[in-house]
Amino acid sequence: MKYFPFLCSCLIFFEFTEAAMSETQLKAAVKLVRNMCQPKSKATTEDIEKMHQGDWNIDHTAMCYMHCALNSNKLITKDNVFNLDYALILAEKNLPTALKDASIEAAKLCKDAAKTLDDKCIAAYEISKCLYESNPEKYFLP
After folding, report:
1. What global pTM score does this model have?
2. pLDDT tens digits, 39-66
3. What domains are there in the chain, each with its CATH number?
């Protein structure tokens, strides 16, 4: 919770700036979200690392970790669907050039990835897995 005001400040700052984040800034933002969401969801480091290696056989707590990560960036709605419009805005305004096109393409491919809408954690898992599988080399979620 101690990171929340800083995260909000960062998001507001990046929302109103024209310059994209650098790779270093993106890594710092990802680390911040991870430091906030991992204790909150009680996801293990092992499960988080598994996702980054393409192994999506994870515990439900790791799925809830992904909900926290997506929700902290407004990428999942209250109805548990992917917020495509906002994802496109964030990608266009904030992502480093090296990730922008791949992220926009992944977002469009995954707009309907959430199928299990009655469980926010599973819906976030479905979205995150789709984003990863659309371009594993450019996946950068926490």
Report:
1. 0.83
2. 999 999 999 999 999 999 999 999 999 9
3. 4-138 (1.10.238.20)
